[in-house]
Specification:
By secondary structure, the chain is α+β, with helices and mostly antiparallel strands. The protein has 7 helices and 5 strands. The strands form 2 sheets. It has a 3-stranded antiparallel beta sheet, with no helix packed on it. Strands 1-2 form a two-stranded antiparallel ribbon. It is globular and about 40 Å long.
Length: about 180
């Protein structure tokens, strides 16, 4: 039996949240937007998502105000809004849970405070200076559990796997395409 399109319990904030980000692929799209993916083709390349599904999910995320759509000279870009950026603690918590239970070799990606290089703990605090690290100051890099995909890796994967700040657009985002 498939899940209904809407949740019956309208008095539950979690149910409403799941209506926005609970469909398959949606949180991965949001995750990749944090990693700097902005263009339709980059999402397709990175996620291997069917184009029709991506179109639907992007339209929904824009409609909900999680992403904004921008017509640029190089094409259409999707960017996280403040409402979308507010999802970071949710994604960070889910990533920590996955690392704890499904990554025996260690974290796939390590998060650091860009200002002092301190590791960012599960609660979002820098373990060096103790401050809560805002999303633009989070530096992400491959961790001990990261597995390189090989030399024939696509440009989007190479860019995402390069140490960088969250929300920083991929170099491929600025190239015509």
């Amino acid at each position: 039996m498939s899940l209904p399109n809407t949740y019956a319990d309208r008095n539950c904030s979690l149910a409403r949240t799941l209506e926005v980000v609970g469909e398959r692929w949606t949180l991965l799209i949001v995750r990749d937007a944090f990693y700097g993916v902005r263009r339709f083709g980059e999402f397709v390349t990175q996620l291997g998502i069917p184009r029709a599904v991506l179109t639907n999910r992007l339209k929904s995320l824009v409609g909900e105000g999680v992403l904004s759509r921008h017509d640029e000279a190089t094409g259409i870009e999707y960017r996280l809004t403040p409402k979308g950026i507010a999802l970071w603690p949710v994604l960070h918590a889910a990533m920590n849970w996955g690392e704890a239970y499904y990554s025996p070799a260690g974290a796939k990606r390590v998060l650091r405070h860009a200002q002092d290089g301190g590791l960012i703990g599960p609660g979002g605090q820098c373990q060096e200076c103790g401050s809560a690290v805002p999303v633009p100051d989070v530096h992400v890099e491959p961790g001990p559990g990261f597995q390189e995909e090989g030399p024939d890796q696509d440009a989007v994967s190479r860019a995402i796997n390069t140490p960088r700040r969250l929300l920083e657009p991929l170099a491929t985002s600025r190239a015509p395409g």
